[in-house]
């Protein structure tokens, strides 16, 4: 996707398919605020408007379709993520993938590190209207439990760190121990969350920001 109009069109398509705003944020790798703005913008285009560049939230869209659409490429990236985790974090028992995009990445990492695999669905997947803080996520029972186990956490991007923090808290609530997090792209320069180190293959830096 090359411009904001493409994102607006994609947000409209996803909303028409019944996805919540949280799921749209996940699919487009943007923040909750950006997802809301895109959905609202797509529904407002009932009359012609001046072709000015639309103003929206300060965010960065990450499109890693070239990786996700190729099983071999996804495996290579998973190996790179596993390599980052192995450098300084010891050995884990479970690799936790954050749904949706984090699970296929976590599958590759889990295979590389020879751990079991867990899947966590964050609260934002239920979020459409109202306060997301009133919602909760959960672990899938179709995958490995985390209780009493050391865990690595895998996702595709860090936008604000909220989802990683939620997952860390969920693991601790279940009696597990989060050792480290790893992502493809970090949009905020996050080095740790609640005492858990965060590693990324790519850091995005906005030049000129203090």
CATH topology (level 3) name of the largest domain: Rossmann fold
Distance between the termini: 28 Å
Strand content: 15-25%
Topology as a string of helices (H) and strands (E): HHHHHEHEEEEHEEE
SS-based structural class?
Answer: alpha/beta
Mean residue pLDDT: 82
Total number of strands: 8
Major sheet summary line? 8 strands, mixed
| Tally of helical runs | 7
Give the fraction of residues assigned to helices. Answer: 25-40%
Please state the second-level CATH architecture of the largest domain.
3-Layer(aba) Sandwich
What is the CATH top level name of the largest domain?
Alpha Beta
Radius of gyration: 18 Å
Low-confidence stretches: 44-53
Identify the overall geometry.
Answer: globular
How many domains? The number is 2
Function: DNA-binding transcriptional regulator that functions as a regulator of central sugar catabolic pathways.
Organism: Haloferax marisrubri
Protein name: Transcriptional regulator GfcR
Pfam family, one: Pribosyltran
